[in-house]
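re: that chain from earlier
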Amino acid sequence: MSAAPTSARRADLDWLRIVALGLLILYHVALVYTPWDWHLNSQHRFVWMEEVILLTSPWRLTLLFLVSGAALRLMSCKYQAGEVLKQRFARLAPPFLFGTLFLITPQSWAETTAKDGYDGGFAHWWFSEFSLKGIADGIPINHLWFVLYIAAYSLVAVALLTRPDWIARAEAWLERTLTGWKLLVLPILYLALVRQLLFPWFGLTNQIQHDWYNHASSLGVFLFGFLVVGRAGVWDQLERLRWVALGAAAVSVVGLMALHAHPGGNVLFGSVKNTTFAINQWTTVCMALGFASRHLRGADGPVRRYLNDAIFPCYLAHQTILVLAVFVLAPKGMPAWIEAPVLIAITFGVSLAIYEAVRRVDLLRPIWGLKPMGPPPPPEPTPARLALIEAVRRESAEPPKVLPA
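^ sequence. v structure.
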């Protein structure tokens, strides 16, 4: 059993991150059509969309936080704690600041214009938002809450990196404890307990200062990924349990939909529904991890590298593009079967177009979460240059000649 992760890149974790963030973008498109009040909604609202989004809402962010914790641990194999913190700050802080100033404000302007009849231009809105009064009223960060949480949880993990003995003991304990059925049942019990005890009181606010249910769940799985990514025994168990997890996930999502739709779904103070939620949350994550580990660990190539590079800038851009697209298209009264595919195409297409533009400009790359390109590689040597290098190498390899006395 491995005692610490290696620094080798895990293609399976990259694929899971790509898929989970892609589903998150589709989830936000689906929110446009739910009866719930989102930033902006379509004229078409469907009650059954509440059931559709239950297909991913229990587990999607859980998987993302777990994979993010695992990725941070793999980074720590190559760098000391201080360098890990420096790289994490360089990756997350510029997009968060840029996004708060320039990506979220168009969403807020469009929402206020459509809902409250605000008739000022965007420039006036922007200066009002960042005036002293606007700052005192609070600056919205909308979907960038995820970036802020990852940064905060990374601080916890980096602090742990200063105590490698603690990490080693925790990793060994998890690998020793989570064997067989316990890998499924014990995390389910934890997730069900925190949902039962904390969710009714705190809900899911995405406001870091008092989002205690979210922290108990998301920080827990972030640290779980951080601690188990290098433990071969845990991954062997995940692969062996993948089919069991798939079956439990399929049954639990049907049960969750039924409990959500039925007027008596909150029976026994919601404990049945909360437990079903936790079962679906964890078994789907285990199923995804197990199948990905079995089939995608070596699935590297140009497609994975391109999508892995593109998905974070697309995540940063997508909600602003979506909200502005709804702002323009919703009043036109298009049929839902035309409007929804158009929104999906615009959201993904413009997000990818932005990525294609910014990835080519080294000055823009850091504010979109991309590493600087650095200096270009040296040109390939010409045949004449290669011949000269070989001649010099042979000359230097010959023993020195001894001159006669």
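DSSP finds 16 helices and no strands in the chain.
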